[in-house]
Amino acid sequence: MAKNLVIVESPAKARTVGRYLGSDYVVVASVGHVRELDKVDVDNDFEPSYKVSKDKEKIIKDIKKNSAGATTVYLASDPDREGEAIAWHIVEVAGLAKKNLKRVVFHEITEKAINEAFQQPRDIDVNLVNAQQARRIMDQLVGFGISEVLWSKVAHYYARIRQLSAGRVQSVALKFVADREKKIEAFVPKEYWSIAVELEKASEVDTRFSANLHSLHGEKKKLDISVESEAAAIVTDLNGSIYKVTKVKKREIKQRPAAPFITSSLQQESWRKLNFAAWRTMSVAQKLYEGLPLGDNDPVGLITYMRTDSTTVSSQAIQETINFIRMSYGDDYAPKSPRIFPSKSKGAQEAHEAIRPTDVERTPGKLKQYLSAEQFKLYDLIWKRMVASQMSDALLDSTSLDISASAPSGEVYLFTTSGSVLKFPGFRVLYMEDSDESSNDGDQATLPSLKEKDVLGCLGVDPKQHFTQPLPRFTDASLIKMLEEEGIGRPSTYAATISTLERRTYVSKLNGRFKITVLGSTVSDFLTQNFPDIINATYTAQMEEELDNIASGEREWVPVLRDVYGDLSKSIEETLNVVKVTVPDELTDEICDREELGVSCPKCAGDIVQRRGKKGAPMYYGCSNYYPLIGKKPTCDFTVDQKPLQEPCPECGKLRVVSGEGLAGCTGGNGNTACEYTGHITENELNREIKLCGKPMVLKRGRFGLFLSCTGFPNCPGARNYIVPMPSTGVSCPKCAGDIMPRRNKKRGTVFYGCSNYYPLIEGKPTCDLLLNQKPLKEPCPECEKLLVVSVEDGARCTACEYKGAIPEIESEVEPDMEDGTV
């Protein structure tokens, strides 16, 4: 008997959807994109050619087999441009064009949503497909084109030919970080002073409060106190002042709840509250969306689709939420009418819902026993945000005071203060949105009951010194917010963009904030100088608008690409033929470990220092005046193989050296006769504290590549080979929770993976000896929750159990740089 074929994206979704549809349907998963963009024929209207990914050949074969006898083929990939394109590619590569095809979309994996979707099928939206295809072609043209310039002009300085990349979205994000770092470096702090007074209502106890100096009486401009002497003069003048209340202002403040989550706000808030990186947030959200088993029951989708820039919520979900609020918190906490939140995202696209729980009755407390710790935390955040968004406003009684201080000198100073009391908590009983930086928007101190002309007693004057602060470095949250505000990229690109910046080592994390590296700064400056019309926020935002116009059918995709490629090819040609790159030495955190011997050269009285032999030759010792070179001869050519000692030979007064364990010999003599002194190393020399150079080292670029050199050169010739660091995989070690890092085999040059805690050594044994030949994946095994690795034959396999399966969807999205416009 013929059955209907349903094609979704992920295996987890396939299991859940199949359970809801029943035995008349066969549900298979494409596991993301089935083919990738291979080449673009720019001379033939940018005609693309695609190739099937090697790990998807078996999947395509299964789709063809299952579609052979199917009466209807339902294309149920995700409800966005990527999903629309995946559906189209499946039809093309599996030869389904002559089948009875229907496109269905659903924003939550629940039985009701799926049944409704299958009752309202449609055709594939060609405009959405063209928009996604134009994005991929555009990203390849920009990404490959500019990346080739980087490989030619910059990469060889860093010994990272294929580790550098550029992209339409990634490079603008990098520029944001680089520009912020330049502002921080150029910032000059300015001193300023504040003066606060502690006051109390006369003759009343427990009425203490503080107020801050604002201005001189009658002036609106805030008083600028820039040096200590000015502050001291005002403090002196305030002694004996009479304080009176001159103005009392009371008002009721309403606080509205935040809108339910969209992709960017979810990533921002999960960083602020949970310290989840963007990729981690999306990985956990993916599982909550696809469905998880609740006890012995079958898997069920817990949240709606997590890639959206719309704050729209279905009327039914809103009503269910309001009913839940009335039942759980009372009528006072429910709004008079449902809240509707307008979208703040530029060019919000597709008819998505906001991210919300699929059933508000599934409270976090009910699900906690079925979820992992990170799943529970994220679900709790999403659930609370949605419920709070439909709760009543919070009400606060706010009071602000103006207080005059009449000084004996005749000057009158104006002090101000404010306070608030939470009158009704409203939505705040459940949830409060965090901010990127610290602020004073929270509840303020409670003030005593005061009226105008009340006389106040002064308990003390407190002057404080401050310095202006530069703009803070970006966090995951603030960088995503910047990208969103500038219209750079789309919700699905933010996590991949940030992951790429870290993977390329363009940025590093310092106290949870992004700091540009020298490599990142060099790349950003190079791109900004040579591709100013392409690598800028305005251009990238305009490209997003053009893609939106293609998706809506307002523009054809070929003319858009023609405009992009014309400017790009001209800039690439000029840069390759003209531009020369100067790469500065990079100051590192490495410290020179050359031992300071404290021994003078017997030839020229210079310092004797350690030297490292070439091509693996053993360490030896020589004069520091070997450099600089004069002509072709060294200033001093003194060398010795044994370690020199400080105290001279007691027989001839020449240089003593270590001749054996605890033994000393002499390098001197008279004429042709060598000094035959032998003796023990003195107690002072045995117990002498070893001093190292300790100066920082810089990364230099020589004929043979990168090396570290002491900043004390030429007085200290300290240098050593530099191993190009490889970025973390972002996967925790299953043995010790360290970071699993790529490593390179010294002899064969091949890459393997090991724990970052392999060093330091403890009694000759590594702290952690985890080693892997295959690349680890961030997603755990779906069967035992242990470590998954990439397998050429199987796609992904578990290191602990016998599980083998496709690479998880979130991994395939983040790893290739297609999502963020890079290659």
How would you concisely characterize the structure shown here?
The protein is an alpha+beta fold.
Notes on the protein architecture:
The structure is a single chain. The chain is an alpha+beta fold and 823 residues long. It has six domains: 4-124, Rossmann fold, CATH 3.40.50; 133-187 and 471-584, Orthogonal Bundle (Topoisomerase I, domain 2), CATH 1.10.460.10; 191-255 and 396-467, Topoisomerase I, domain 3, CATH 2.70.20.10; 263-389, Topoisomerase I, domain 4 (Orthogonal Bundle), CATH 1.10.290; 595-692, no CATH class; 740-814, no CATH class. It contains 19 helices and 41 strands. A hairpin with a 2-residue loop joins strand 35 (761-762) and strand 36. Residues 810-823 have low confidence and may be disordered.
β-strand percent reads: 15-25%
Widest sheet, order of strands = 7-8-13-12-9-14
CATH architecture of the largest domain: Orthogonal Bundle
Average pLDDT reading:
83
| Computed structural class | alpha+beta
* H/I helix tally: 19
| Fourth CATH level, the homologous superfamily of the largest domain | Topoisomerase I, domain 2
Distance between the termini: 46 Å
3D shape: globular
Q: Give the domain tally.
A: 6
Ranges where pLDDT stays below 50 over 5 or more residues in a row are 810-823
- Proportion of residues in helical segments: 25-40%
CATH class annotation of the largest domain: Mainly Alpha
Based on CA atoms alone, the radius of gyration comes out at 34 Å
Major sheet: 6 strands, antiparallel, barrel
CATH topological fold name of the largest domain? Topoisomerase I, domain 2
Strand segment count:
41
